[in-house]
């Protein structure tokens, strides 16, 4: 499934370069207009990130995200700064299909496991945004990619064994916003080690050839952001390739 992405800062669509808030590109099109265009091009689901919330550890654009869920015609999964159960309830009650938990899935897995049980694994995705260290080990970062982590991706995923977790979203930070190709080898390894997990890939897609390489892995979803904003191809072409 092709999942177009909208990243929000102060109510505007933006894209970051390698997760760096100081290297951002702003787009003039209104978020709802972007979402409706994605729907017209054949998308059925959209990934929305509250980057203000991710950076400040407090969901800050909830009303806009609920509007997107209610008005876009797309199923919405969203994350960024989600820290307590009331925020999750408000989003799900407002029409969001799935919430995406990032930093807390690393720093407080017990709470996230409780949410998986409370809301059901079909409603909660964990998002692990990784830097690749000098040894080639993927290390999840936290707090909007600002803080470096200490646990490996494999350590974090192993900790969720038996939790009921269904879906994991993995982003290679070093490739995000670069348009230079996805980390296919990383995703192959995840698929090999955790075949029962639904894998959503994110980061690096810059061409339809990149999309084809990811589709060959048969992931649960492929998130695409900057390539769509930069008109490298359309959602329609990505779905069809």
Topology:
Layout: E1 2-9, E2 12-17, E3 20-27, H1 31-40, E4 45-50, H2 51-56, H3 62-71, E5 75-79, H4 85-93, E6 98-101, H5 103-107, H6 109-119, E7 124-132, E8 138-140, H7 153-159, E9 167-172, H8 184-193, E10 198-202, H9 208-215, E11 221-224, H10 226-229, H11 235-240
Parallel strand pairs: 1-4, 1-11, 4-5, 5-6, 6-7, 7-9, 9-10, 10-11
Antiparallel strand pairs: 1-2, 2-3, 7-8
Would you report the number of β strands?
Answer: 11
Q: Which runs of at least 5 residues are low in confidence (pLDDT < 50)? A: none
Classify the secondary structure makeup into a structural class.
Answer: alpha/beta
CATH architecture: Alpha-Beta Barrel
Structure description:
This protein has one domain: Aldolase class I (TIM Barrel, Alpha-Beta Barrel), CATH 3.20.20. It is 36% helix and 27% strand. It contains 11 helices and 11 strands. The chain has helices at residues 31-40, 51-56, 62-71, 85-93, 103-107, 109-119, 153-159, 184-193, 208-215, 226-229, 235-240; strands at residues 2-9, 12-17, 20-27, 45-50, 75-79, 98-101, 124-132, 138-140, 167-172, 198-202, 221-224. The chain has an 8-stranded parallel beta barrel, surrounded by 6 helices. Strand 2 and strand 3 form a beta hairpin. It is globular and about 40 Å long. The mean pLDDT is 91. Belongs to the HisA/HisF family.
């Amino acid at each position: 499934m092709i999942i177009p992405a909208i990243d929000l800062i102060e109510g505007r669509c933006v894209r970051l370069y390698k997760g760096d808030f100081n290297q951002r590109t702003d787009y003039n099109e209104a978020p709802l207009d972007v979402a409706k265009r994605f729907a017209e091009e054949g998308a059925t689901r959209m990934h929305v990130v509250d980057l203000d919330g991710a950076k400040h550890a407090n969901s800050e654009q909830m009303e806009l995200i609920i509007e997107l869920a209610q008005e876009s015609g797309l199923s919405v999964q969203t994350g960024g700064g989600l820290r307590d159960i009331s925020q999750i309830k408000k989003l799900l009650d407002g029409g969001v299909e799935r919430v995406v938990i990032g930093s807390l899935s690393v720093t407080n897995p017990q709470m996230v496991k409780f949410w998986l049980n409370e809301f059901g694994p079909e409603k909660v995705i964990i998002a692990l945004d990784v830097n690749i260290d000098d040894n080639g080990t993927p290390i999840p970062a936290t707090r909007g990619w600002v803080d470096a982590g200490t646990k490996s991706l494999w350590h974090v995923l192993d900790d969720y064994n038996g939790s009921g977790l269904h879906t994991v979203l993995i982003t290679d930070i070093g490739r995000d916003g670069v348009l230079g190709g996805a980390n296919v080898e990383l995703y192959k390894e995840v698929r090999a080690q955790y075949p029962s997990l639904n894998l959503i890939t994110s980061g690096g897609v810059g061409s339809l050839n990149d999309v084809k390489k990811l589709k060959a892995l048969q992931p649960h979803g492929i998130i695409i952001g900057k390539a769509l904003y930069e008109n490298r191809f359309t959602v329609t072409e990505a779905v069809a390739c």
